[in-house]
Write a structure and sequence with these properties.
The N terminus is likely disordered. By secondary structure, this protein is α+β, with helices and mostly antiparallel strands. The relative contact order is 0.23. The protein is 20% helix and 32% strand. Strands 1, 2, 3, 4, 5, 6 and 7 form a 7-stranded antiparallel beta sheet that branches.
Length: 136
């Protein structure tokens, strides 16, 4: 979130759940490495859906993944999905809005949520994405 857009909203606010980051250019094979977070890089799960860990620690049952995905309007957004471990496999849950995913992480790992928000704000400040409030 930029300082002048919905300045009253902050991590942990219920209204922040309604925020979604829309990319101006979809992720593809040519640009996916431009969106690295820490040591993680995007991997294509299926056409139009890219994922990478936002928070994944071996001894913590909670995990959260970025989902760069195309929605029904044809636009690509940054969503999140929580991970669950089952039989040494990691499964992703239902997609969450950008804000809801950040709030979920904020409730578990406040400092990590702030780092993830900074990463997303850097994308927005580079004019590669825009924050929008959505109505569910």
């Amino acid at each position: 979130m930029s300082e002048n857009d919905n300045a009253a909203l902050k991590l942990g606010d219920d209204k922040f759940d309604e925020m979604m980051l829309f990319l101006k250019t979809p992720i593809n094979q040519q640009n996916h490495l431009d969106y690295r977070f820490g040591d993680s890089e995007l991997r294509e799960l299926q056409e139009g859906i890219w994922a990478m860990p936002a928070y994944l620690v071996d001894d913590d049952p909670y995990s959260l993944f970025f989902l760069f995905t195309t929605i029904d309007s044809g636009e690509m957004v940054v969503a999140f999905a929580e991970g669950t471990r089952q039989d040494k496999q990691l499964r992703l849950g239902q997609p969450l809005t950008t804000g809801a995913g950040l709030n979920s992480l904020f409730a578990q790992q406040e400092k990590r949520a702030q780092r993830v928000l900074k990463f997303l704000n850097d994308i927005s400040r580079a004019d590669e994405a825009e924050w929008h409030q959505i109505v569910s």
